[in-house]
Request: fold
Amino acid sequence: MFIGERRETFYDVLSIKESTSYEEIRSQYKSLILNLHPDKLQASESGGADQSLGNKFLNVQRAWEVLSNAESRRRHDNELRASKDDLLVAEDVGLDDITVEDSGEVLQFSINVIVVIGFALIHKSLKKWVILS
Reply:
């Protein structure tokens, strides 16, 4: 999913931990939404700043929509766990795991990976060719 990078989660948007209770999420949401609401913000000279604050407002609203509902929060948490697992697997892959075949005209780089989805193991071979000039 997000190999080598970390995306911002809805928990990050609200500046809370994943173990935060519903009541604490609600309190943090209310605080942020009041501070970021477009009607409360003073007009600034820079349109970019207004747009950035507007985006933050929308992100906080979206985070609340997901985290305030038990089912959507559960799905979000499952996706987070899956993406963290992907990151751990990606960190375990090293240069020793890559094979190189040189035919003189083309270099072929390959790596064999095992992907775990639920209880299923999926074996994949990832290949890339480089044409030598």
In short: The radius of gyration is 22 Å. Residues 93-133 form one domain.
